[in-house]
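Moderator note: this is an archived Q&A kept for reference. The question asked for a predicted structure of one protein chain; the sequence and the answer are reproduced below.
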Amino acid sequence: MSRWLPHVTVAAIIASDNRFLLVEETIDEHQFINQPAGHLEEGESLVKAVSREALEETGWEFWPEALVGICRWEHPKKKITYLRFAFCGTLGIQRFESPPDKTIDGLCWLTRDELLTRQSQLRSPQVITGIDHYLSGQRWPLNILTEL
């Protein structure tokens, strides 16, 4: 008997002057736009995971301040379900001039409207959903997440 397990991921919603910090990444020879995001690793808290992923993909420290939303999405072609925890917060210091993650081609700051014009390049619909949750003011304190 096989057991279904979703892929748990985290994403950093980083905003400044109505623009959002996004990464351009190459996956399977296609370039996508995404928030700094990635998988939760074994033994890692969600907050530590989003800080780590942001640093690896942008070269900048990220300090999560609130949970913006949780999104469940099934990839239509891969039949993989993702459970994504999106956090907002602030950038700290730049640790690396170029991101350590070699799948990252570059960084860009885009408004929601600019992002919509490039919708075909989005890694998943969770990118816009996270921004929409952020723009609607959704915020939950980090202590809503309990680590046992």
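Archived answer notes: The CA atoms of residues 66 and 141 lie 5 Å apart.
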